[in-house]
Amino acid sequence: MKWSANQLLRKTGDYIYGVHIDQDHFFNYGDSYPREIYDPSVVLEYGKFEGIAPKAPQPIESWFPDLQLITLRTNEGSPKGLFLGAKAGANYDTQHNHNDVGSFVVYVDGLPALIDIGVGTYTINTFSKDRYSIWTFQSQWHNSPTINGIQQECGPQYKAQYAKYTKLENGGQFEADIAGAYPTEAQVKSW
Predict the structure, then answer these.
(1) In this protein, which residues make up the domain named Heparinase II/III-like C-terminal (predicted)?
(2) Please, how many CA atoms are within 13 Å of residue 50, restricted to the half-sphere of its CB?
(3) Which residues in 110-137 are b (16+ Cβ under 10 Å) and which e?
(4) Which residues of 51-75 are buried (b: 16+ CB within 10 A; e: fewer)?
(5) pLDDT one-digit tens code per residue, 87-116
(6) Cβ proximity of 90 and 160 under 8 Å
(7) Where are the domains of the chain?
(8) Distance (Å, rounded) from C-alpha 82 to C-alpha 79?
(9) Distance CA 36, CA 20 (A)
């Protein structure tokens, strides 16, 4: 098999580059951890991808429109300066969903400045009807706004109404309307 011709593998690699902040720090959302330690036996297998031309690490921008996910940094190829990771998306992405539409992280010189709390310890309630009674799954514990005292809800209808990235001469602009992640009682038309 010619690994470099496999678009799924290429996109997986692009994603990993895109969400990498510095060293073992990655943009985390949902139930992912902000720090990753790889299994050395798996890393040894990476040699099989020798034919794939590598991208520069730490790209200045990575836009994943299907996920409505963006990462931007001030200096390509370097952790120096600012890093922003932001997610619009939906509150029904996977069985590992968190109510975190509109969440973001900011790193300065490769170190966390504004974080997403991430995932807690899985319990018997994690994959039950009581999932969203666990604080780490609720939007108020991510850095998503509570609007008129109302948190985001889970379900395929609770999602960003749009997300758009525009490349600019000196950076980029990310816009998202996350009002759709809230139930009607939040009385929000746009956010």
Answers:
(1) 86-182
(2) 4
(3) beeeeebebbeeeeeebeeeebbebebb
(4) ebeeeeebbbbbbbeebbbbbbbee
(5) 999 988 666 788 999 999 999 999 999 988
(6) yes
(7) 3-186
(8) 8
(9) 10
Q: Which two tokens stand for residue 191?
A: 């956010």
SS3 assignment, position 156:
coil
Its pTM surpasses 0.90: no
**Tens-place pLDDT, residues 40-69:** 676 667 666 666 665 557 899 999 999 999
Beta carbons within 8 Å of 179's beta carbon, 6+ residues apart: 161, 188, 189, 190, 191
**Interatomic CA distance for residues 176 and 160, integer angstroms:** 7
